[in-house]
Amino acid sequence: MGMAADTADNGVVLAADGRPLKDSLNRALRKNRMRAVMLVAPLLLFVLFSFLIPIFNMTLRSVDNWHVGTLMPATTAALATWDGKDIPEESVFAALVVDLQAGAKSRQIGKVGTRLNYEKSGMRSMITSSARKSKKLTSGPYKAKVLKMHKKWKDLETWTVIKRNTAPYTVGYYLNALDMKYDKTGEIVMQPENRRIYGKLFWRTFAISLAITMICVVLAYPISFLLATLPLRYSNLLMIFVLLPFWTSLLVRTTAWIAMLQSQGVLNDLFVFFGFVDDQNRLQLIHNLTGTIIAMTHILLPFMVLPLYSVMKTIPPTYMRAALSLGANPFVAFVRVYMPQTLSGIGAGSVLVFILSIGYYITPALVGGTDGTLISNQIAYHMQSSLNWGLAGALGALLLASVLALYFLYNKIVGIDNMKLG
Amino acid sequence: MSEATDTLVKFESVQKSYDGETLVVKDFNLDVARGEFVTMLGPSGSGKTTCLMMLAGFEPATHGEIYLDGIPINNVPPHKRGIGMVFQNYALFPHMTVAENLAFPLQVRGMGKSETAEKVTGALDMVRLGGFGDRRPAQLSGGQQQRVAVARALVFRPQLVLMDEPLGALDKNLREEMQYEIKHIHEELQVTMVYVTHDQSEALTMSNRIAVFDDGIVQQLAPPDELYEKPMNAFVAGFIGENNRLYGEVKAIEGDFCHVELEGGGGMVKALSVNVNGVGSRTTLSLRPERVTIGAAQGQSTNSLEAKVEELIYLGDHIRSRVSLSGNNEFIVKVPNSHGHVHLKEGEVTQIGWEAEDCRALDA
């Protein structure tokens, strides 16, 4: 009885000094908790500024629609009450002229043109030429004069597009990224067949990634098995060969593949030498789908080998021996006893390789040609060349969402706790 | 011919080398009779597990032949030998339930579903684990896993079961319990068992015969009582049970006995001549602590020597006394805690004695 902790009247267990035991424990643990926070703080800050904020920023850009609202405030206000059934009234045109004149003066009106041009081609030239001409307009009524400046002002769709983009946020970039658009009446419809790019590209990215993942499993499984079962001194050497690609620049490896696979390259020379192919009909192995798959498989293979190896290393050889002693032939023993135990390794490696490949950029850019490029190359194009960052953000966000969906699915089916990465 | 059918396993001058330079098993000969429980006992690295692996088929013999039921099996792959095996860490398949583990050997033999289920239930009942069929091995205690492993090795009714240190991972109480359980299963099923262990009490408890291994050679193959009471060489005498050693030189041999002059100035003693190289050779005298009497009067036993009590340890049923004798200060005498036993004091000089039959003169 004397050894038991004291208890207050309300049932709270008390420490020796009479304070509640929970409080004492918390005080004792606070120091440890503070230390843990201090230890992760630098990394946390780094990840926040270099990873989370940029991702958030890019995702924000994919819905941000400030141009019309900010640069054409008068028109935006005037269009608020427009019913959209016919060309607007004189008041709207008067507001438009005010905005165009201000925009021309500040040289900002081009941004509005560029933004509206994403929605409907021809809008940029309409806006910029009208802005230029609007400087001469001094008095109203403006409607007739503006309609004369550019014939597209007579088009109801022009006004529908402008009105729609007075909203501060838009789903336009996402529609574009999903091969959809608004039609003349403002309804969301699919793009015409010949203008659908991104859907096809997404599917190609997924298909290529899946193919690379499966090739990696097939190639990595035997080598991992060998690594896990060889004596340590041999397996260490073999492991160095597996890791060697990690120590070489990605660019160097990819260029090496160009030298290997091009039509005057090493592989084709060998094929011709041994008579597999005719000198006139050398195989096209690079700057197409084949090149992308070969080079990316090579680069991503270690990411499959390492999780597989780490799982296989933990499977003692006695399981196979036990299965054999119980009368199973080596094949049955392998399929029914060994392989099921490596599933978590296959799962971890596949998720890793698949996620890495759907976002892969450099290698397909260098060896992909036209039919071997992936969605990431389109994102880079819109970031660097077309400067349509909103669309790049939307494509990136869709890619991120699909990765998260995949992760969620994997967690549901296999359980992320079963994932072993080393 | 009747002997040939009674012998289930036969090792014939089997040798094994892993590196082509040293022999792990030097010259192994063993006949195991049908229904027998034979234990291979020895320190680690003595070659006992290698012999078992060769019998199971996981290691090829470098030289010699192994016969199973009269048929040479050197070229028979393990899965066609029909030998049940219990591994050191059980090797229960972690992704299968207990019932699936037990059904595995039956399924690969193409047995029907209902018959399989029946046999699995029977095997689980045999090891008193009925109702545990749906659990995963990881959900069982060490002792339960052990019993499942034994059941799995027996469920397909092999004529021979091998066990490779199966109780090594269990704690002491459980280990003793399992020893009796395995012994009873062996008696009940009349199955031939070859068992490997480094634990001598395990070997003494369960076996019909024990092969004591050292340095790749069988030092002695005998039933437990003979092994303990009549060790044939110094290694076996030292490895099985507690043992006092005295070294000396053989001075004369008369019949079954010899006279030995002890090193360290202990004088002449008479011993059973078991394994000596003739007059003038060095010999190890082996004496069990319980066969030595302490405080005996001169002339009461054949050999009588003066000894100094160095240490007394009270162990309840007996008092363990360490004395120094003829230059050996690790000489142990067990004094039974019986009514009226001798009360010794540390530092006291007393007289100890033993019969010539209890003192075995072995190789040096």
Identify the notable features of this structure and list them briefly.
heterodimer, A: 422 residues, MetI-like fold, 3 domains, two-stranded antiparallel ribbon, 2 strands, flat, B: alpha+beta, Rossmann fold, OB fold (Dihydrolipoamide Acetyltransferase, E2P), 5-stranded mixed beta barrel, elongated
Description:
The complex is a heterodimer of chains A (422) and B (364). In chain A, strands 1-2 form a two-stranded antiparallel sheet. In chain A, strand 1 and strand 2 (188-190) form a beta hairpin. Helix content of chain A is 67%, strand content 1%. In chain A, helix 15 packs antiparallel against helix 16. Chain A contains 19 helices and two strands. With 422 residues, chain A is mainly α. The model of chain A has no long low-confidence stretch (mean pLDDT 89). Chain A has three domains: 1-61, no CATH class; 66-170, no CATH class; 198-418, MetI-like (MetI-like fold), CATH 1.10.3720. Chain B has two domains: 2-234, 3-Layer(aba) Sandwich (Rossmann fold), CATH 3.40.50.300; 242-363, OB fold (Dihydrolipoamide Acetyltransferase, E2P) (Beta Barrel), CATH 2.40.50.140. Chain B has helices spanning 2-6, 48-56, 98-107, 113-126, 142-154, 172-189, 200-206, 224-229, 234-239, and strands spanning 7-16, 25-33, 37-41, 63-68, 71-72, 83-86, 160-164, 192-197, 209-214, 217-222, 244-254, 257-262, 268-273, 282-287, 293-294, 303-314, 318-325, 328-336, 349-354, 359-363. Chain B is elongated. In chain B, the strands form four sheets. In chain B, strands 6-7-8-3-9-10 form a six-stranded mixed beta sheet, sandwiched between helices. Chain B has a five-stranded mixed beta barrel with strand order 11-12-13-20-14. In chain B, helix 3 (98-107) packs parallel to helix 5 (142-154) and helix 5 runs parallel beside helix 6 (172-189). Chain B has 364 residues and is an alpha+beta fold. In chain B, 39% of the residues are buried. Chains A and B meet through helix 15 and helix 16 of A and strand 6 of B.
